[in-house]
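Example 3.2
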Amino acid sequence: MAVLVEGISVIVRIDAIDTLLHGGWDHFLTLVPNDTLCHDDHLARVGFMASADVERFVIELQSCGLKFIDAGKAVHMVVVDQHQGTTVPANWLQFARFKLESPPVLVSTCWLVTPNLFSNKPPHNLFVDVVTPDNWEYASSLSSSSNFIPNQQISENLTFVRHENGNDFYIDQRTGHEVVISRS
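Structure, written as tokens:
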């Protein structure tokens, strides 16, 4: 099974949550700042649209006993961009795009590397069970949007307009359209 990756996702090993995070899974659930959590038996995923929110979440998880990076490699968690994959090497995680069965569209996913699971990237036409957040629908998701702007391009392409009801509003300089980034 694989977990959905959208926007900027923090992927956390559930075995690390259970054994190292003070308070375990129940405490982890209290730390999740939005409704993007999804998980399988091995990985928990929380999605974000802004790197500052990712950084706050990672720091909070570290303060509870999890380790992010050691010697340049992900330890208990990793940050994954929906287009680029992991931001640092994570030998315990595989990233690829899979076709959902319904609707038959490609989405970014990742899964825990195990000896019995895919040893290489599977073909893009393979249907795979993908865990998504509750109430997730492809049509209104970041996976369906062609307007996802990678972090490094936000300052180049977007001009901040206002913050309202937990959202940051920008004008996309390329299109002139308003862009909304949900903030945790």
